[in-house]
Amino acid sequence: MGVILRIKSIVSELMLAGMLVSGAAQATLVDRGGGLICDTDQNLTWLQNPDLAVPYKVYFNTAGIFINNYVHADPLRNQFVDDWRMPIITELFYLYWNYGIRGSMPDTLFQNVHTENNAAYWGVALQYSARIDFVTGAYNLLANTAQPIYAWAVRDGDVDLAPASAVPEPSTIALLGLALCGLATSRRKRVSKQLTRDIPSFLILPNETLYCLK
User: Fold this and answer.
1) d(CA 30, CA 56)
2) What is the gyration radius of the CA atoms in the chain, in angstroms?
3) How many Å apart are CA 46 and CA 37, to the nearest integer?
4) Half-sphere exposure of residue 36, counting CA atoms within 13 Å on the CB side?
5) Alpha-carbon distance 29 to 42, whole Å?
6) Taking the CA of residue 146 as centre, how many other CA atoms within 13 Å lie in the half-sphere pointing to its CB?
7) What pLDDT is stored for residue 105 in this prediction?
8) How far, CA to CA in Å, does 55 sit from each of 47, 101, 153, 175, 189?
9) Which residues contact 135 (CB under 8 A, 6 or more apart)?
10) Is the pLDDT of residue 92 over 60?
11) Average pLDDT along the chain
C-alpha cells in the first residue's frame, strides 16, 4: 500500500507541474530527424513512431523484450541506436501533461500514438508495471501484466550528443573489402610458392601454375 501511495504522490505532483507549465514547455521537444524526438527537459530520446519497436499490443514482459532488442537505424547521424528501455511512468506523464501529447492530435511530432479503446502504454513505476492512456490521461499503477497493451521505447540522453554504435561508411566498407581481397591474394601466392618449392622444375609451367600429370 505504501508503494502505491508513493507513486500516486509523484504522479500527482507531476500532473500539477504539467498543468502549470504546459503552455511554455512545447519548445523543449525537438525533432532530431531519423525518426527520433529529443525531450530536452528530461534529457531523453523517444522513438517518433512507437510502433517501430513494439508493433502491436503485448504483455508487460514481452514489451520489455521487444524494446531491449530493438535496434534503430539512424541515417542522419550514420549510426545504430540500440540502448532502448521501458519508460518510467512519470516520463510518459511528462509527455501527456507537460507537452500535451495526445493520441487524438494528428499534428504532434509523434506518429501512430494509438487512440482506440484500451490503447494504453506500458510504463514502469518503482520496478512495478504501470500504464497510461494517451487519449484520456487515465493511468493504473501495479497494472495487470497479463493484459496486452502498447509500449513505447525511450533512451537516456540526446542522440545528437551521445551517438550510439556507428554505422560504417560505404567508403570504409569498400576499403575493408579491398584489404581482405589483397590478403587473400597474397595468401594464395605464398601457398602456391611453398608448394612449387618441392616440385621438380620440369613439372612447373612458366606462370607457376602446377601441372598435374594424369
Assistant:
1) 26
2) 28
3) 5
4) 29
5) 10
6) 0
7) 64
8) 12, 19, 11, 37, 52
9) 102, 103, 104, 115, 119
10) yes
11) 75
Q: Residues 97-147: pLDDT tens digits?
A: 888 888 756 667 899 898 887 689 999 998 789 999 988 889 998 888 989
* Residue labelled with grid coordinates 497493451: 149
Which of 69, 87, 86, 76 lies closest to 36 in space, CA to CA?
76
What whole-number distance in Å separates Cα of residue 43 and Cα of residue 210?
66
Write down the residue that cell numbers 612458366 correspond to.
Answer: 206
Q: What are 151's three cell numbers?
A: 509500449
- The rounded distance, in Å, linking the Cα atoms of 94 and 45 is 13
Q: Give phi and psi for 192, each to the nearest 5.
A: -60, -45
Beta carbons of 88 and 50 less than 8 angstroms apart: no
| Single pTM value for the model | 0.67
Q: Residue 46: in which H helix or E strand, if any?
A: strand 44-47
